[in-house]
Each structure stands twice: as C-alpha cells, then as structure tokens.
C-alpha cells in the first residue's frame, strides 16, 4: 500500500497558531458532578464506543466521556474535524498521510494511528482535505504578506 503524503505534518507551534485562526474554542465536557474545558486543537481523534467517546490527544493521553460521537460532532469545528465513518472523527491538523488501496482508503495520523475511511465517505473526505489544505495555503500566504521583511 503506497502512502500519499499531502504535506509535511504541522509543528506544534503552527497548530497553536492555526487553532486561533480557525476559531477552535475549548470543548466543555461533562464529568461526574462537574464540567471540564478541553482544548479542541489538542484532540487528534475521537473514537466512538457505544454511548461513550474516547478522546485521543496529541500528548498521547486519552479520555473517555459519556457522550455519543454524534452529539460531539455538532460541537466540533467542521473546517478541521472530519468524520471518516461511524466510529471515528479525526482532526485534519494531525493528518500525516492518505493510503489508497483498491478496496479501502485509510489515513495515518501523527500519533501513529491508522484509521480506515468508509467507502461512502471517501470522496467527501478527499474534498474536505483538499479544501482544508487550500485554506492552510491561503493562511500562510496572508501571513507572509502581512509580516514586514518577508518577501
């Protein structure tokens, strides 16, 4: 299986910078008796497990929350988060590569996870990735023009 690398993975500093420009607020998640804020830009992947969702963070930590993936999907930034199939949502900021195969499309993330893309969602996923990359290019160009001393 040949990997298609879209761009080199983003640095932590670049992710922090982009998060501010994509309006990625903190998520307010319910816990026993209280609510806790979690930075949306540090989420690499969300994995649905019945009525629970397992968060995978960039630092390698994981967190289980008693909300369904569907309920959380509406709270996430649609420019950055993509649902690959019924069990996974990924953050495009941490996309490392796309791996096409004759029968199955899968992706790799910077944390080492490999996730399959459902056949029904594959073409929409590719459109979202291309749109996201175009926005990143436009952001980079706007920053380069706006900064003095950079040609």
UniProtKB/TrEMBL annotation:
InterPro entries: LytR-like, LytTR_DNA-bd_dom. Pfam families: LytTR. It comes from the Bacteria. Residues 37-131 form the HTH LytTR-type domain. This is Two-component system LytT family response regulator. It comes from Spirosoma utsteinense.
């Amino acid at each position: 299986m040949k990997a298609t690398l879209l761009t080199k993975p983003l640095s932590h500093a670049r992710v922090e910078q982009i998060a501010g420009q994509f309006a990625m607020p903190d998520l307010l998640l319910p816990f026993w008796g209280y609510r806790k804020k979690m930075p949306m830009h540090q989420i690499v992947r969300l994995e649905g497990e019945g009525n629970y969702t397992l968060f995978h963070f960039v630092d390698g930590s994981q967190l289980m929350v008693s909300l369904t993936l569907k309920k959380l999907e509406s709270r996430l930034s649609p420019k950055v988060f993509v649902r690959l199939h019924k069990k996974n949502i990924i953050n495009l900021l941490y996309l490392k590569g796309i791996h096409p195969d004759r029968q199955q499309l899968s992706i790799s993330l910077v944390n080492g996870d490999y996730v399959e893309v459902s056949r029904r969602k594959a073409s929409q996923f590719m459109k979202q990735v291309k749109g996201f990359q175009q926005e990143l290019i436009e952001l980079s160009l706007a920053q380069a023009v706006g900064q003095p001393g950079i040609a």
